[in-house]
């Protein structure tokens, strides 16, 4: 499902997936990513915490969906670089027959996907699609080759929709994918918000580096992606507050990062 003839990996232009990897303590990044990542930390020290906490939110959400909610199909759009406890690892640990499709269009991500995003169980399926989320029709067309769209699908947009060119475009992307999946499917989504001026400034400065711009949005704009769906408790909240383990050491204040899980009626 990959397309090896895609664009070459650029080591001279920062990339958000590689910078995110740097903030999470990974090694799959280049000097330009580390330089920009350090500069971003100077502007907004909370960004590294957001990176780590976003993975904790993913783990809790996927564990709930594969467990209590009974989801067996996951479409993770805008995967980013493989890290600890990826979607397929969490889902297949809970439900070994889970099918997971990762979607990304960064050549470095796809290279790592080929090497690392492999089945953790004999019963499950792990695959990836080389596609841009601005073309959701292409994503759903390819996903049908692996997933059964007559059965519920969990659709995930984990901190990526700021790359949508406008709020209307963001809603179009989410709606197109969610319109293609049946009743009983779930939407899992989070993103940084404009509540933090430091985060807004970080995004503005990042755009000047030559990287693909990231557009922070208000809580209301992000929450609008869930319109028409039924929130799973506790609803639309800071990601650190979504079913967090009371014994887990959290952060001392809410991050400017909100999200939730919702069911398509």
TrEMBL record:
It holds the Pfam family Methyltransf_19. GO terms for biological process: methylation. Gene3D superfamilies: Vaccinia Virus protein VP39 (3.40.50.150). Keywords: Methyltransferase, Transferase. It comes from Wenjunlia vitaminophila. This is S-adenosyl methyltransferase. InterPro entries: SAM-dependent_MTases_sf (IPR029063), SAM_dep_MeTrfase_SAV2177_type (IPR006764). The keyword Transferase applies. One of its GO terms (molecular function) is methyltransferase activity.
């Amino acid at each position: 499902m990959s397309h090896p003839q895609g664009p070459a990996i650029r080591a001279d232009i920062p990339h958000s997936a590689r910078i995110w990897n740097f903030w999470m303590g990974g090694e799959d990044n280049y000097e330009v990513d580390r330089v920009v990542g350090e500069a971003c930390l100077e502007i907004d020290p909370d960004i590294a915490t957001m990176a780590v906490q976003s993975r904790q939110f993913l783990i809790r959400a996927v564990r709930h969906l594969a467990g209590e909610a009974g989801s067996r199909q996951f479409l993770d759009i805008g995967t980013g670089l493989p890290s600890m406890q990826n979607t397929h690892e969490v889902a297949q640990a809970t439900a070994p027959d889970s099918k997971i499709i990762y979607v990304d269009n960064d050549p470095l991500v796809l290279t790592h996907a080929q090497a690392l995003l492999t089945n953790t169980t004999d019963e499950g399926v792990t695959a990836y699609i080389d596609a841009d989320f601005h073309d959701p029709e292409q994503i759903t067309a390819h996903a049908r080759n692996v997933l059964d769209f007559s059965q519920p699908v969990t659709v995930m947009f984990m901190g990526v929709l700021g790359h949508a060119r406008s709020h209307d475009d963001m809603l179009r992307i989410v709606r197109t994918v969610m319109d293609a999946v049946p009743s009983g499917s779930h939407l899992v989504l989070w993103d940084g918000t404009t509540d933090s001026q430091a985060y807004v400034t970080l995004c503005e400065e990042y755009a000047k580096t030559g990287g693909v711009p990231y557009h922070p949005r208000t809580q209301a704009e992000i929450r609008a992606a869930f319109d028409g769906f039924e929130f799973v408790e506790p609803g639309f909240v800071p990601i650190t507050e979504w079913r967090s383990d009371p014994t887990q050491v959290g952060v001392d204040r809410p991050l400017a990062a909100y999200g939730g899980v919702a069911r398509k009626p």
